[in-house]
Specification:
It is a single chain. The chain is mainly beta and 119 residues long. Helix content is 14%, strand content 45%. The protein is built from two helices and ten strands, in the order βββββαβββββα. It has helices at 55-61, 106-115, and strands at 13-18, 21-26, 30-36, 39-44, 47-51, 67-71, 74-77, 81-86, 91-95, 101-103. Strands 5-4-3-7-6 form a five-stranded antiparallel sheet. A three-stranded antiparallel sheet has the order 8-9-10, with no helix packed on it. A two-stranded antiparallel ribbon has the order 1-2. β3 and β4 (39-44) form a beta hairpin. The longest helix is centred in the last third of the chain and has 10 residues, at 106-115. It is globular, with a radius of gyration of 15 Å. It starts with 12 loop residues before the first strand and ends with a helix.
């Protein structure tokens, strides 16, 4: 008998290995994912968790209705965007519940505006 190897997603949560624990984190508390070498840092309202997976693999597992790849080093939670700031040197996203900024490319900024309602 062949074992079913398909994975299921728990609606509204993701599961993260953290030491000897498996932590179930509500998607609504995720601020962003940040590339950190070969790992990915998961920024939440409760703290930062390091994931032993590439940002590309994380992106494949996420629901693109809630998360957006703003830059090669960032995936942001669309519900956590506070504002987008453009300066002479860069464009970045200010996120809720953190002082850290997420970079966004000009091309991805245009894609983001196509996805959301702008008044």
């Amino acid at each position: 008998m062949e074992e079913n190897k398909s994975k299921i997603l728990i609606h509204g949560k993701i599961c993260v290995k953290h030491g000897h624990e498996r932590i179930f984190i509500p998607k609504k508390s995720i601020i962003m994912f940040v590339k950190n070498g070969r790992k990915t840092d998961l920024h939440t309202m409760d703290g930062i968790y390091s994931i032993h997976d590439s940002l590309n693999n994380v992106e494949k597992k996420l629901d693109n209705r809630h998360f957006f790849r703003s830059h090669q080093s960032f995936i942001i939670n669309l519900m956590m965007i506070r504002k987008i700031v453009t300066t002479d040197l860069e464009t970045y996203v200010n996120m809720e519940h953190t002082e850290e900024k997420a970079q966004i490319t000009k091309q991805n900024e245009k894609k983001l505006y196509e996805l959301i309602e702008v008044f």
